[in-house]
Amino acid sequence: MTTLDRPRPPIGIDRAAGRPGRRAWHLGRGGGGDPAWARPALLALLVATAVLYLWGLGASGWANSFYSAAVQAGATSWKAWFFGSFDSSNFITVDKPPAALWVMGLSARIFGVNAWSILVPQALMGVAAVGLLYATVRRRFGPGAGLLAGAVLAVTPVATLMFRFNNPDALLVVLLVGSAYAMTRALEAGQAKWVIAAGALIGFAFLAKMLQAVLVVPGFALVYLVAAPISVRRRLLHLLAGGGSLILAAGWWILAVALTPASARPYVGGSQHNSILELTLGYNGFGRLTGDETGSVGGGGGTGTGRWGATGWSRLLNGEMGGQVSWLLPAAVVLLVALLWLSRRAPRTDQRRAAVLLWGSWLLVTAVVFSYAKGIIHPYYTVALAPPIGALVGIGAVGLWRHRGRLGARVVLAAALAGTALWSYVLLDRTPSWHPVLRAGILLVGLAVSALVVGLPTLSGRGAPVVAGVALLPVLVAPLAYSLDTAATPHTGAIPSAGPAVAGGPGGGGPRFGARGGVAPRGGFPQGTFPGGPPQAGGGLAPFGRLGRTGGMGGGLLDAQKPSAALVQLLQQGSSNYTWVAAAVGANNAAGVQLAVDRPVMAIGGFNGSDPVPTLAQFQQLVRQGRVHYFLASGGGRGGPGGGAATASDITTWVTSTFSATTVGSSTVYDLSGAAGRTGT
Predict the structure, then answer these.
(1) Residue 87 gets which letter from DSSP?
(2) Rounded CA gap, 507 and 97, in Å?
(3) Could you tell me if 26 and 520 are in contact, meaning their C-beta atoms sit under 8 angstroms apart?
């Protein structure tokens, strides 16, 4: 039996004093008696994170205008706030539950509707997530591991992107980290209240992004069932209570929408039958896994692929997703395996192994789902992987470093460092003209430090801390550089991505849309898979708007354009006499106008223009009642699957054949207030 295999005293809990017992050698110290440097170091980490996430935040403007328009609606109407309506007249909701909009909407009510009031809450959620991750890891592994875990999360490029943006992912991540903290507390003594708290946090996260929130549930439940220091019966009862709290936290709003008569609420955006259950289980549920997403702009496809790129184990490493989150993914997997191997002889209730399993299950389940899902998936979804990667790197690196006198620990550390340096070189090499010295320097330093780690016993006592400090360079510098580039660059549109532009992507070298705006911004659709088919010349319907900044009502799916001053002035005239000052196909075609005019604009067909609402008869009735003033036309493209594309096409055909067009700036506008529109069909 080697020294690595030799059994060691298990971790325990001094229940009387509530303090961690003797520490397990392979995983480091517990949470009591922090050194003097711990609190100042934590404060420095949080301040640095706040600077990274807040500096120049207003440069992104409305960021994702689709959600900003919904925040504007919620700041005007409490009904719109509750349901997550796109417009304050409550025609249709966004295609997600509204929890993230609730936070931003309250901020906008207090501070006014502007870029800062919308984006600052997101940035503060990022700081909170870093602090919660530190607190969770520190409880079992000490402040050093917590600080490294928090730092990894803070500088992960996709985290910097999402905590500076107004998509729902920021709230999702901070709530999931909170649920991991609650489960860590629950595992310490088998307390039901913490399991219930974890379930409630996951349930509220469900109201931010539905199915993605529950990906942590199987692993969390299994770890508690195996490792909690109480009887099997109590473990099962606690998990049932936690499941109940999850259902209550997520289900109350779902039930409220389901029980509200359709005539008393907005249409459920993203569904084909005005059903919140359809949205939950279909478009935002199992459809994300299978690709069967009626009304989606893409998704679906043959075996191993879909409109959102090839599936498979390498998906998280490819040109679209690799630079977002995978910098330390290989190291996290190596350290996870090493920690589980070293703790294989620990008793069932070993709390540090349970914590490793908790974070490992989060990482592996989410990674597998992201890798093989055939439905809609964007690079920024990978922000959900940043907390477990940070936790495993912090736990593994610091735990093994404390036992660097053992050859096995040094070899694992050296392998993780060398692998990180090599992988960072590969990722940086995808942007060959972007600071080329950086990738060479990281590779050389990483390989050199790896060799020094193996040879640590030959160094003096003072040499080891120097090696530890230098070892952080290949770990943090590359993702930090990408994060700084992300923070320095304004991001708009529906599909943002972090870091500098990367050549190629899924499908290889195709057009890239949706990251920073512009004619060909980064991230988005694989080669040849424009949403709803290729752009078409002349006539027709554009539920997505134009792909790029080509004037008119362009922007669509990718970026809501700012309307001309002439168009804003026209729409504001007599706007109080109408329920909707205008109607446009697709929510993003309507978003920029609504934000500029500060009056509700009807988004025909919802976000994608593919929701079958309103019908032609319903729209004609609203026009005859004088509730819609103008129709804003856009050209090119066709809708995704679903009945809404045909419905919107019928409305467009009726409007263009019944009313006269006027050119305002670069926009084509139809005035629906004439007598012909109110009587003719």
Answers:
(1) S
(2) 32
(3) no
CA distances from 486 to 158, 159, 162, 188, 328 (A): 9, 10, 10, 39, 18
pLDDT, position 641: 47
Burial of residue 538 (CB within 10 Å: 0-12, 13-18, 19+) is exposed
- Which contacts of 278-284 are long-range, i.e. CB under 8 A and separated by 24 or more positions? 279/95, 279/210, 280/210, 280/211, 280/254, 283/95, 284/95, 284/96, 284/209, 284/210, 284/211
Residue 168 above 50 pLDDT? yes
Confidence band, pLDDT 50/70/90 cuts, at residue 675: very low
Q: Say whether 453 sits in a helix, a strand or coil.
A: helix
Burial degree of 652 (CB within 10 A; 0-12, 13-18, 19+): buried
Question: H or E element: which one contains 38?
Answer: helix 38-54
One-letter amino acid for residue 249 of the chain:
A
State the average pLDDT over residues 174-194: 97
Residue 389 CB contacts under 8 Å (≥ 6 apart), including other chains: 152, 153, 156, 325, 328, 329, 332, 363
Amino acid identity, residue 114? N
Which residues, in sequence order, are bridge partners of residue 630?
582, 671
* Range of weakest confidence among 275-279, 434-438, 462-466: 462-466
CA neighbor of 191 nearest in space, from 15, 380, 388:
15
Helix axes 99-111, 65-76, angle to 10 degrees: 60
Closest CA to 613 of 643, 583, 591: 643
Q: Which residues pair with 13 in a beta bridge?
A: 20
| Identity of the amino acid at 370 | F
Nearest CA among 433, 430, 399 for reference residue 416: 399
- Reduced DSSP (H G I as helix, E B as strand, rest coil) percent helix, strand, coil of the chain, to 5: 60, 5, 35
The angle formed by the CA atoms of residues 498, 607 and 519, to the nearest 5 degrees, is 45
Lowest mean pLDDT among 182-191, 332-341, 454-463: 454-463
- Please report the beta strands in 320-420, taking only residues with DSSP state E, as ranges in sequence order: none
232 exposure class (CB count in 10 Å sphere: 0-12, 13-18, 19+): exposed
Output the CA torsion 479→481→482→487 (10° steps). 120
CA distance 352 to 184: 9
Model confidence band, residue 125 (pLDDT cutoffs 50, 70, 90): very high
Beta pairing class for 661-664 and 667-671:
antiparallel
Distances (CA, A) of 662 to 383, 545, 567, 656, 675: 45, 19, 11, 11, 17
- Note whether 653 and 646 are within 8 A (CB): no
C-alpha torsion sign, points 436, 440, 446, 449: negative
DSSP per-residue letters across 191-225: -HHHHHHHHHHHHHHHHHHGGGGGGGHHHHHHHHH
Whole-model pTM over 0.70: yes
Task: Centre a 10 Å sphere on the Cβ of residue 273 and count the other Cβ atoms it contains.
Answer: 14
User: How far is 217 from 203, CA to CA, in rounded Å?
Assistant: 10
* Long-range CB pairs of 43-47, under 8 A, 24+ apart, other chains included: 45/130, 45/134, 45/147, 45/150, 45/151, 45/154, 46/127, 46/130, 46/131
Number of H helices, E strands in the chain: 24, 7
Q: Which helix (H) or strand (E) holds 664?
A: strand 661-664
